[in-house]
Write a structure and sequence with these properties.
Elements (H helix, E strand, L loop, with lengths): L2 E16 L4 H9 L8 E18 L3 E5 L6 H9 L6 E7 L2 E4 L12 H11 L4 H15 L14 H12 L6 E5 L7 H17 L2 E5 L3 H7 L2 E6 L2 E6 L1 H15 L1
Parallel strand pairs: 3-7, 3-8, 5-6, 6-7
Antiparallel strand pairs: 1-2, 1-4, 8-9
Helix pairs in contact: 3-4, 3-5, 4-5
């Protein structure tokens, strides 16, 4: 069974406080070989996630909602294995397809073809499968002869086509999305949305972070509300959305 199990996870990042940001102190420290303190000395910690315990099972479509800085993207990166817990443990059963930074791993000096290949390798796809998939990926991008050009000559929309095509070429058991991807012009956007819908339909688990109530209600059957790195509500979609978006209306 495909599942995501997060057990009493806390995630912290070190912060280095600049108590004395004076340029004069920095220069004095340099010329006196450290005899005058530069003031860069205090280390603190930022608790990004605090004592999170969640179990996500096969068939669940989970929407993560909360204000900016609540921990939504951090939780997605934790599930993806980008971050490791400072405390507690996380176990994911099943393959993960994360679209958290779809432009990662591209090379501006390489051609579009090469970047499709490189990004596929980054996702752990074997070379034989990549070579079989390349014609379909090229067709999806709709870039034609531009695939022969270095990626540094591309517009931002063209680069996103390359990244999106490579990132969505295989179905994963667990799909992670940080907001709904909107890439390219209206013609490519239609193809991209159809492809995303297919991936979500085939996935066993979906976890998506979004500020859109309409999107959460359309895609999800469970809502987790985060605030300051903690889970404040874990409920059905209506209850969770009413709670969070109702609070936002009150704040206005």
């Amino acid at each position: 069974m495909v599942s995501v199990n997060i057990n009493h996870v806390t995630l912290t990042f070190p912060l280095y406080a600049l108590e004395h940001r004076s340029l004069k102190r920095r220069l004095l420290s340099l010329v006196t070989f450290g005899m005058v303190d530069s003031g860069l000395k205090t280390q603190r910690e930022n608790v990004a996630l605090r004592n999170i315990t969640l179990k996500i099972q096969e068939g669940e479509r989970v929407g993560l909602i909360g204000a900016n800085g609540a921990g939504k993207s951090t939780l997605l990166r934790l599930i993806a294995g980008i971050y490791y817990p400072s405390e507690g443990e996380i176990k994911v059963e099943g393959s993960i397809g994360s679209m958290l930074n779809i432009s990662l791993g591209t090379d501006g000096e390489a051609t579009g073809w090469d970047n499709l290949y490189l990004r596929s390798l980054l996702f752990g796809i074997n070379r034989k499968t990549i070579e079989e998939n390349l014609p379909k990926l090229a067709e999806l991008t709709g870039l034609g002869h531009f695939l022969d050009y270095p990626m540094k000559t591309y517009s931002s929309g063209m680069k996103m086509r390359i990244a999106f095509a490579a990132s969505t070429q295989s179905v994963s058991n667990v799909v992670l999305l940080d907001e709904w991807l909107s890439v390219g012009d209206k013609f490519f956007k239609k193809k991209a949305e159809e492809r995303l819908q297919m991936l979500i339909k085939e996935a066993k688990i979906l976890v998506i972070a979004s500020h859109s109530r309409r999107l959460i209600e359309r895609l999800c059957n469970r809502v987790i509300v985060l605030d300051a790195g903690t889970v404040v509500m874990d409920a059905d979609v209506k209850t969770g959305c009413d709670y969070y978006f109702g609070m936002k209306e009150i704040e206005k």
